[in-house]
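Thread: Modeling a multi-component assembly for a lab meeting

Hi all, long-time lurker, first post. My supervisor asked me to bring a structural picture of a complex we are working on to next week's group meeting, and I have zero experience with this. I have the sequence lines for every component (640 residues in total). Could someone generate the structure of the whole assembly? Inputs are pasted exactly as I received them:
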Amino acid sequence: MFTLLRDLRRLRRQLDLPHRTGSLAIRHCDAGSCNGCEHELTLASGPHYDLSRFGLGMVASPRHADVLLVTGAVTSRMSAALRRAYEAMPEPRRVAALGDCALGRGLLGSPDDILGPVALVLPVDLEIPGCPPTPDAIATALFGLLASRPTGPGVTVGRPLGSADEQPSGARPD
Amino acid sequence: MSEYRADVADGLSGPATFGALYATGPVVRTVLIGPDGSPGLISAPVVEGSVPSIVDLAPAAGWDEREAADLYGVGFTGHSPMRPLVAHGAALEDWTVRVSGHDAYQVAVGPIHAGVIESGHFRFHVVGDRILHLDAQLFYKHRGLQAAAEGHRLREAMVFVARACAACAVTNAIAYAHACEQVLALEPPSELRRVRTILVELERVWNHLNDVSAICAGVGVAAGNAAFAALTERARRLNDALTGHRFLRGAVQVGASDLDWDASVVRRAAHQLDSVRTDAARAWRELAFNASFQDRLAGVGVIDAGRARALGVVGPAARAAGLDRDERCNSARLSYDGFAPAVPERPDGDVRARYEQRALELWQSFDLLGRLLDRPVTASRAEPGPAVRVPGAEPGDETGIGMVEGPRGRTVCILEARDGQVKRLHLRTASFANWPAVAAAAAGSLLPDFPLINKSFELCYACVDR
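Re: Modeling a multi-component assembly
Sure thing. I ran the full set together rather than chain by chain. Output:
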């Protein structure tokens, strides 16, 4: 086990990782992906990118989350669960759409089974394109969200789910 | 007994095994696969909305019949109760097995899971920590890809197959390409066979590395998890360097390959694979001497040879139970001359056996890749060959059946074509074949062991839901 830990320490030293402050708790939700975004997201938390080292942690419940990270086009069978996960999140909350399917680009499937992009169901704050986005692209995009995280008061608690074009509440530096 | 059931029973009483079952609307077809990997079709016309069920003859057909019932509205006489599989929204008692008794209760998990995991719902029937039964409700990610492919030209429909699953992108794509090439009377020359074999072995390497990482995560061994995650990253970077895509997507086409790797590219790839292999072997040894980790694997989630055979388990999970079936032995359209399946030392069918099987197959894949990457790869095209007629296919039907041993086992792709277009596409992936075994392995185990059991199979949801 010491060998493994030594290898990992060496790997970390070799990587040129940026210095960041702050944190975001991220809840992942697969709304109908091909599993590619999940595999890349998993590696974004792996030793090469190590999101948790920069305060970006995956949490087990939407109730603990600042960000809902959604992968895949929203299927008819996942839309209700996706909405419930969003409704369970405390304010301020953000939604990030991960991957081309989540952004509605090049969708494939039957219209009966696929509703469409995440923005049809939830207000999307961050778009991370790619099929799938690399762990590097995922990390870079989430670092951007970290830099622009909502601060201060002006937050309504328990805001009901709005229409797709409605922006989430909470002050956002533009 | 109907003619259809008699034919299926006759086939299964010999050396043939169940391969797949699918509906087209007016007809239900069963694919049986001979010991040499040759498929045959047995068809039953749908009469007054029903066909006889074969689930008593081939328990592995259970999910196939449930899927056909939901998607095509076919009734299966004798399959009772017919629980919905793809169709959601049924009352709980209609899709779960009734479990009652003193202290028995249910634990509902998902469709959204606690980690970075695909969506699916599990309903555990437990007493205390002991799982009595597991009902899995998948198909949350059903995108209707097979139906959407219908009517497209054969070459264009590849995108639907490739999109089914990223983790099995090459396996599914090659199975589809083989089916198309049978219909188009094309034969892959040796160079095309070689490049496709390289691709599917690269897919196996990154998947097996990922699986070992996942098993470590399943018991909370962070160092092992991180070490193999780092190796997975290196394998995916190599995929990207070779094909421009980290999941090798788009590298497989119907009837051709555009990949062109000169001597330096091939040499560099072989060198990188060597270095990944060395580090993987070192990390593997570290885990072998971690007693508290190893103690968690033995005797957990057992699927023995008898149950594996009955449930139609494929791939490393089947071989870990002592079944030496590996479709690579029968892959005339790929470069596996002289291949023999890796046989485990302890074919106990438990988590440890499945974990150790991954390593055996990893070393085997590195060996294969070392041999296959001994010279540059050039672009190649399939050549006209003899038309392949699938036994049992109706005259005039253009039917092709492709089979590939992917990282999780045998994937079967059935294509029915007409006028160069997809009439019906059915992708029965290894994950589809093995999901019922995950539920079976969970029964009798402890609830906290389920993540470990699940990871020891490491099946895709996307491949099943499609």
